[in-house]
TrEMBL record:
The keyword Metal-binding applies. This is Methylmalonyl-CoA epimerase. InterPro entries: Glyas_Bleomycin-R_OHBP_Dase, MeMalonyl-CoA_epimerase, MMCE/EMCE_epimerase, VOC_core. Keywords: Metal-binding.
Length: 146
């Protein structure tokens, strides 16, 4: 079951400048940043709010790391802007299988690694009324050591 907006993915040419815009304009700080080579992105997660399912909602700012990445290709065609939305779920495998049964193309056979150790997959935008849609299961919260 999809229980939150996990994040909105925003493609940008210059991650540092875009982070600074969100900080200076809205006061949002970087919660986490990383490079995901498989996805071809350098990214910053700005936490906006916690959610009632125990998760959170973020903005995910994305800068391409290589010219053949999906985000670089998209930026070349569209310029900067909203690239995808992501729904959070406790069960990305089960939800992706259910959605696939409804005739929507799921882009990965198995979920891949996303931000902060999450597991992610994508639905084809042409099957989702023009919206590239991601499904995310966050990494389990590590319990404190005793
Ligand atoms: N939103 C909406 N439509 C999109 C889109 C997007 N982000 N990206 C592509 N499209 C549309 C294109 O406009 C194009 O439509 P037309 O045929 O009408 O022109 C069509 O989909 C095909 O686009 P394309 O430019 O030829 O791109 P590809 O088919 O090579 O790739 C996609 C599209 C969705 C398969 C690819 O972007 C993908 O695999 N995305 C998932 C991975 C990803 O986006 N990773 C980066 C984010 C990582 C993260 O969130 O952690
Ligand atoms: Co994303």
């Amino acid at each position: 079951m999809l229980t939150r907006i996990d994040h909105i993915g925003i493609a940008c040419f210059d991650l540092d400048k875009t982070v600074e815009f969100y900080r200076a304009t809205y006061g949002f700080e970087v919660f986490h940043s990383e490079v995901n080579e498989e996805q071809g992105v350098r990214e910053a997660m700005l936490k906006i709010n916690d959610t009632s399912d125990g998760g959170a909602s973020y903005l995910q700012l994305l800068e391409p790391t290589r010219e053949d990445s999906t985000v670089a290709k998209w930026l070349a065609k569209n310029g900067e802007g909203v690239h995808h939305i992501a729904f959070g779920t406790a069960d990305v495998d089960g939800d992706a299988a259910e959605i696939k049964d409804k005739g929507v193309r799921v882009l990965y056979e198995e979920p891949r690694r996303g931000s902060m150790g999450s597991r992610i997959t994508f639905l084809h935008p042409k099957d989702c009324h023009g919206v590239l849609t991601e499904l995310v299961t966050s990494a389990p919260v590590e319990s404190p050591e005793h």
